[in-house]
Amino acid sequence: MKRTLSLILAALLLAFTACSESPDNADETQSTAAPAAENTVPGTEDAAPEETAESFDPGLPERDFGGRTFTFMTKNNATWSDWKESSVWSEGMNGEVLNDAVFERNNYVEETYNIEFVEYGPDSGKLSSEAANAVTAGDATYDVIMPPLNVAGELLKKGYLVDLTQVDNMNLEQKWWDERSIEDLSIAHKLYMVSGDLSTLNHDATWCTMINLQLIADYDLKKPYEYVANDEWNFDTYRTMCATASRDLDGDGDFDSDDAIANLTQNENATAMLVTFGYHLIDKDENDLPVFTLDGDERVDDILRNISEFMNDKTVSLNYHQYGSLGYHLLTTKMFEENRGLFWITNLQMVIRLREMETDFGIAPCPKYDETQQNYRNVVWFVGSYASIPVSVADPGDSGFILEALAAKSREILRPAYYEVALSMKYLRDEESITMLDLVIDNRAYELEHAFSFGASSAVENIVLNGKDPASTFASSRKMIDKLIAKAVENLEARG
Asked: How far apart are CA 219 and CA 224, in angstroms?
C-alpha cells in the first residue's frame, strides 16, 4: 500500500510541474437567492483531462534592481500560533519539503532580479497597528503587507491599501492568483487583497470534512468518496451517516465529551455551513458592491433552521466551544484521535495537526445542501494570508513586479511541495483523499464579511447557535448591516 501510494504521489507531482491542472473555479459570484454555479466534479478516476504544457513564466521583462531590499510584513511571529506565516521566507535548506521550496523560490527571484528579500513579522503580533503606523508616517520600508483577511479589511477601511487591479506588472488573470478570491473580495471592480500560491496558509484555512476511516469501517458505512463520485454527498447523506455513529460510552444517559459523537463541530460552522450550502454572508450587486440579501429567502431560513437543529442535537453533534476555553479545538482533536468522532468539518490544517494520529483518516469536500446545489463550496477562513500593497510604497509597480515573480515561482515549486506534504503517508492515509484534496482546494469561497464585519456573521450565529427565528433576527440586524455597508462603500469611493 505504501509503495502504491508513493508511486501515485510521484506521478501526481510530475503532472503538477509538467502538465496543466483543471482551471480554478471561474464562475460568477452568485446571488444568495440560489446555489452557486456549477463546477466540474470528477466522476470516475479514469476520466483523464486533456494534458497541455503549463507555463510558469510570469512574463516580466528582464530587470536588475541593483541589490535593492524588498521587505514583506507578515504574521511570521509565534503570537499567531498555528497561523504563523511560514511560507514567505526561509533561512536556508534543511531537508523539510515546504521550507526548502520556499528557500529555492526566494533564492531564484533574488538572483534573477538582483534583490535582497526580507521578511518582517512584528514581535508584538500587532500587524494591523504596525502597518497602519508605517503608512501614516509615510514609511516606504514595507513593499508588501500580507495580513489575515480581517486585518486587510481594517487597513482597507482606513485607505491604506493600493488597488491591485491598477498595479503595473501584476497580471491577476494568471493561474497563480486565486480567481475565486478576486471575484469574491473585489469591491466596485477594485481589489485590495488577493489570495494565491505565494502562501500556503489559505490552503490550511480552507474548510473540509475530516473522516475517521476506522469508524467508517466499524459502523459498516459507505465511504464519503463513493457519495462524491455519485454526486450524493449532501447534508441529508451526512446527517443519515451521523445518526448511526454516536455512542454513550460511559452509560450515564447523556452525550458529551466523554462519549463518541458522530459530528464534531465548532461555532464557526454556524456560518461556514451556510457558505458551504451555496450562499455568501455578504453578496454583491450588479455593480460589484456589497449587499445583504439573506433576509426574505425561504430557502436560507430552512437551511439555517436545519443547521441549528443538527448542531444543537447533542446525540449527534458536539460543539467544542460549549466546553469553554479549556475545550478549544484540542478537545475535538483528542476525540477524533481516539476514534470518538466520525466527522469533523473544520480547516484543512487539521490534516497536519493530526499527523501523529494512529488511526487512518481522510478528507472530503464539505457536503452540498441537496441535489439542486451544483457545486461544492469550501469556505476559506479569515486566518490565512493575503497579498496587499500599502499606499506608502515609493512605486507600487516594483512591489507588483516582485509579487508576480514570487507567485509564479510558487506555482511551480511551492504548490506541488504543499501537495506532497499534505498527501504523504504521514498525513492522509488513503489514495482517494488525493482526488478529494483537489475538490477542496479548487472549490473555495471567500467572504467579504470576514474582511469588514458588517454584522451578517453575528446574525447567522444567533440564529444557528441560539435557535433564534431567521426572519425576525435578520429584520432586527438589517438596518445596522446596511449602514455599515454604506459607510464602507462611501469611504472607499471618497478615496478613489
From this structure: 13
DSSP 276-312: HTT--SSEE-TTS-EE---TT-HHHHHHHHHHHHHHT
Show Cβ contacts of residue 178 under 8 Å, excluding neighbours closer than 6 positions.
24, 194, 195, 196, 202, 444
pTM check: above 0.85: yes
C-alpha cell at 174: 494568471
- Residue 155 belongs to domain spanning: 68-204+381-445
Whether 353 is covered by a domain: the verdict is: yes
218: domain CATH number is 3.40.190.10
If asked whether residues 253 and 108 sit together in one domain, one would say: no
Here the cell at position 155 is 487597513
1: which 3 cell numbers?
500500500
Three-class DSSP category at 331: helix
Q: Are 135 and 391 in contact (CB under 8 A)?
A: yes
What confidence score (pLDDT) does residue 425 get?
A: 53
Half-sphere exposure for 89 (CA within 13 Å, toward CB): 17
Phi, psi of 225 (to 5 degrees): -60, -35
Asked if the structure places residue 268 within a domain, the reply is yes
Q: Which three cell numbers stand for residue 254?
A: 447523556
User: How many domains does the chain contain in total?
Assistant: 2
Whether residue 241 is found in the same domain as residue 156: no
Cell output for 12: 501526481
Q: Is residue 2 part of a domain?
A: no
Q: Are 188 and 492 in contact (CB under 8 A)?
A: yes
Residues 6+ apart with CB under 8 A from 43: 229, 231
- pLDDT at position 125: 80
pLDDT band at 391 (very low <50, low <70, confident <90, very high): very high
φ/ψ of residue 103, rounded to 5:
-65, -45
Q: Note the residue count of the chain.
A: 496
Question: Is residue 330 a part of any domain in this protein?
Answer: yes
Give dist(CA 106, CA 90) in Å, integer: 8
Q: How far apart are CA 339 and CA 434, in angstroms?
A: 22
Q: 349: number of CA atoms within 13 Å, CB side?
A: 16
